[in-house]
Design a protein that fits this description.
Length: about 220
């Protein structure tokens, strides 16, 4: 009976020790790197025809207003974030393993984007970075055709409030279906915007990786 009680006590002690070790391991891994992502607040459209300047802008004002409305519909905040999260962000922008993606559905104010040099969230993670979509811009040019350009910005803070690395640049690709004309498939045109948005980020990320690698060598 005494031996059985001793055995039960030893097993209980071992279980407690394993629980303690497991808790310590969880605590040690409870603060993974965080990547916070924000969608763009601003949508723009510019149609350039034979007449440029104020006259051309006035002529195309209604058309550009309609284009911006369709941009906002196809690339609303959740759609932008979903598009980014559908990509292999860990490989594209060289994230550390097990980085947690934190979504922010509300866009940042465009006018304050470059002014704020500290973290844009209240996270206290020891490994913290940000991916911000700054602008989504549709352009139709009489010579260069139709395209979608997107301005992205990566900011890496490490474990404090100081920016260790920042890379801001455009990605841009041509469009074939957007904006749809009367009688054309509007769904296909809006889907095209999402696909080109992704390609824009991949283009941006390729250049960002080069900049990251150059910084690490410096």
């Amino acid at each position: 009976m005494i031996k059985r009680a001793y055995l039960m006590s030893a097993l209980a002690g071992a279980a407690a020790l394993l629980t303690s070790v497991d808790a310590a391991a969880q605590e040690a891994g409870a603060a993974p790197c965080e990547l916070h992502i924000w969608p763009a607040e601003r949508m723009n459209s510019s149609t350039t025809g034979l007449l440029g300047g104020l006259v051309g802008a006035a002529i195309n004002a209604k058309k550009d207003a309609g284009n911006k409305a369709q941009l906002a519909s196809a690339l609303d905040s959740p759609s932008q974030l979903d598009a980014l999260q559908s990509l292999d962000l860990q490989t594209l922008i060289v994230l550390k393993p097990a980085t947690v993606i934190v979504r922010h559905e509300t866009p940042l104010e465009r006018k304050t984007m470059n002014k704020v040099k500290t973290r844009r969230s209240d996270s206290t993670a020891n490994c913290y970075s940000e991916l911000i979509v700054a602008d989504v811009f549709y352009s139709k040019h009489i010579m260069y055709g139709r395209s979608l350009k997107t301005l992205f910005m990566i900011r890496d803070f490490g474990n404090d409030q100081k920016i260790d690395f920042e890379y801001k640049a455009w990605g841009g690709n041509g469009l074939k279906l957007f904006p749809p004309k009367e009688g054309e498939d509007s769904i296909a045109a809006l889907d095209e915007l999402v696909g080109v948005f992704k390609r824009n980020f991949e283009e941006y990320a390729n250049n960002a990786r080069k900049s990251i690698a150059a910084k690490r060598k410096a």
